[in-house]
């Protein structure tokens, strides 16, 4: 059962860049990949304990430091403080980002005992009511113990997780007064993948249809269980599966089983759409400070309704290998990149609309070093979480996000299924041999 708590807004503010954006930088171009990205806010929450219980003065000082350093960071990431004016550009007009400070009527440790997505959503910001949509929202939640949770939602069309990590890392460095702050490169990605000349209808292109009555759960796979899982997932074709392949395949396997049971035993073919970061796959690879969306995907399919773990891992490995082979990557970077990306998108859209197919979506946020990037001067966060069950995030049926656990070795998964299937899924004893639910 989710813990009940009240989050009271005590201060709302628009944070603008500390220095005005120069006239020659007041239009920032999007890339083709930005245009093809869903129109959603992506959430992250960073949790920080307070060693001095009930020290609100320290927490308030930290909140003030966050505002000052955020303003300085926006000077470098000036498009984030602007507004989208078309499907291909942002007006960098320094209108700013939403910043909310709250008080939470419980202790931080009470929430961390058994975090539930629907409750954690209270710690995330929502648009304050301005006529134009801010591209970044921030909510600083201060608990009775003086602990803090920083909720951030960023507009996916202007940033992928790599870019958001760079933003947070820069913000944290500014808060610490570091002189080693790298300026973001805001032009390379749009030059590599120029936007289309005609408007992109994001609703038509976005196949991720939201459905009502979605149940969300957090699954925790510790390092020892992942080692066991990888051993079971290994085969002659994939002798050393990665931890992401093993966990992604396991969730896919039992989600399919739950769907079959919920339909009274009717089996269907299944596909898994997996998002992939292209930065290190490009030739030459992109530097970390290149800002924007550089994502693509591949689709893995079951063979004749085959749901054995080793077979699913093999399909994941083959999908990754085939879609991102050296020759295919050459096409994505060549003169035919537009047609290649649009063809891939139409392929995925076609899968999503098939009635004879169970389709799932997986995004891995592992190895993004979010814990290491978010030290604002009072230590790394105790916990970093995405949050399902929130109206502005990537919540869609049959989807899951994989994240590193705090030790960097385990994996946490946030999973969304329709309610009837989740009730079956979360009781599967084979699953529970490897994962804990909402622990």
Automatic annotation (TrEMBL):
GO terms, molecular function: acyltransferase activity
Pfam annotation, one family: Transferase
Keywords from the UniProt entry: Acyltransferase, Transferase
Keyword Kinase recorded: no
Keyword flag RNA-binding: no
Taxonomic superkingdom: Eukaryota
Family: Belongs to the plant acyltransferase family.
PANTHER family: F21J9.9, HXXXD-TYPE ACYL-TRANSFERASE FAMILY PROTEIN
Protein's name according to its UniProt entry: Transferase
Originating species: Corchorus olitorius
Lineage: Eukaryota, Viridiplantae, Streptophyta, Embryophyta, Tracheophyta
């Amino acid at each position: 059962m989710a813990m009940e708590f009240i989050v009271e807004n005590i201060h709302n503010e628009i944070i603008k860049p500390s220095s005005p954006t120069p006239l020659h930088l007041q239009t920032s171009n999007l890339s083709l990949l930005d245009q093809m990205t869903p129109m959603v806010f992506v959430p992250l929450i960073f949790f920080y304990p307070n060693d001095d219980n009930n020290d609100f003065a320290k927490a308030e000082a930290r909140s003030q430091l966050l505002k000052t350093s955020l303003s300085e960071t926006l000077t470098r990431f000036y498009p984030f403080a602007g507004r989208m004016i078309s499907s291909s550009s942002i007006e960098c007009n320094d209108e700013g980002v939403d910043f909310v400070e709250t008080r939470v009527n419980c202790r931080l440790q009470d929430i961390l005992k058994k975090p539930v997505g629907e409750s954690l959503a209270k710690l995330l910001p929502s648009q304050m009511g301005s006529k134009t949509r801010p591209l970044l929202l921030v909510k600083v939640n201060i608990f009775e113990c003086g602990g803090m949770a920083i909720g951030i939602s960023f507009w996916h069309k202007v940033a992928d997780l790599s870019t958001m990590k760079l933003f947070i890392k820069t913000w944290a460095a500014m808060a610490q007064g570091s002189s080693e702050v790298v300026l973001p490169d805001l032009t390379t990605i749009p030059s590599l993948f120029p936007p289309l000349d005609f408007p992109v209808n994001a609703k038509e292109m976005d196949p991720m249809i939201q459905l009502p009555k979605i149940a969300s759960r957090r699954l925790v796979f510790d390092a020892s269980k992942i080692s066991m899982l990888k051993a079971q997932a290994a085969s002659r074709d994939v002798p050393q599966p990665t931890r992401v392949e093993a966990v992604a395949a396991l969730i896919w396997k039992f989600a399919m089983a739950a769907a079959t049971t919920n339909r009274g035993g009717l089996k269907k073919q299944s596909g898994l759409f997996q998002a992939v970061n292209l930065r290190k796959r490009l030739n030459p690879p992109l530097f970390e400070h290149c800002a924007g969306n550089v994502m693509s995907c591949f689709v893995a399919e079951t063979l004749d309704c085959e749901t054995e773990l080793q077979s699913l891992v093999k399909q994941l490995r083959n999908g990754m290998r085939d879609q991102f082979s050296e020759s295919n990557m050459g096409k994505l970077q060549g003169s035919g990149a537009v047609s290649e990306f649009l063809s891939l998108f139409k392929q995925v859209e076609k899968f999503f609309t098939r009635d004879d197919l169970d389709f799932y979506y997986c995004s891995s946020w592992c190895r993004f070093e979010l814990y290491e990037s978010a030290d604002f001067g009072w230590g790394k966060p105790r916990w970093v979480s995405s949050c399902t069950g929130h109206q502005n995030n990537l919540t869609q049926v049959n989807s899951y996000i994989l994240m590193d656990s705090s030790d960097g070795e385990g994996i946490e998964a946030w999973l969304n299924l329709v309610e009837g299937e989740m009730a079956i899924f979360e009781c599967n004893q084979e699953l529970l041999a490897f994962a804990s639910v909402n622990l």
